[in-house]
Structures are given as structure tokens and as C-alpha cells.
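== Sequence entry ==
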Amino acid sequence: MGDNKVHSNPFSFLRRGPAAPLCAGFALIAAAALPAACASNGAQSGDDASLAAPPSAERGLAFARANCGACHAVTPDQETSPRAGAPTFYALANNPAVTPLSFDVLLQTPHANMPNLMVSPRDREDLWAHLLTLRRTP
């Protein structure tokens, strides 16, 4: 017979079995991505006109230069990043694994080798628009 027991913790199934740590990791990533995926234009800095404006590659480049450029090469003319091991934005833009969602999650997930930046949804959209300008055309 099946287990009809009601669990007080709806995520208790994540603690069972050999894949439990992996499942928990995926659950955390999904939980981090969900607010970004569901947000349309939440609370953001700037005036009302900039909130209604579409994503801007120019704003994304300006943000990247100011906040990312100390470690990452953010323009296509930069062949290497200032910090060894930091991927160039050109490499990120042309990596098939980097999608809008994965990039959004990356910017919201703390990494040991990256500062804990708080990047607003508007800035994430602008950064993605900038990355799109760096993609190779087939």
C-alpha cells in the first residue's frame, strides 16, 4: 500500500536517497530563479520612464563597465579579462549554455570567486541585451 501519511515538511522527500544533495541543489536554484522568472517589472531604481523602457544594450554596457569591468572583459575588443580565470563577456555571450534564465540565475547566486552583487531586474535585462550584441552571427 502507498504511504498516506501527511508530511509536515512538503520538501522532506529531498532528504531521502543518494541523490538528495543533488535534488536539494536543484530545488535551491529553482527557488532562486522563480522570482526572476515571474517578475515583470518589479521595484527597480530609476524614474518611471526608464522602468517602462525596453532593455538597453547601452545601459548594459555602462553597467558592465562600472561593475564588472575590473574582473571581466566586457567589450569585444578586449581579448582577455583583467582577472585571470574570469570569463570574457564575449565568451559568455557565445556559450550555448548561457541562456537568459541561466544568466539571470548566475547573477543572483553567490559565487566564491565573485563579489556578492545585488543586480536589479532592470540591470540584469540590460546586461543580457549587451551580451546579445556580443554574439557571433552564423
About this structure: The chain is about 45% helix and 0% strand. Residues 91 and 134 are 9 Å apart (CA to CA).
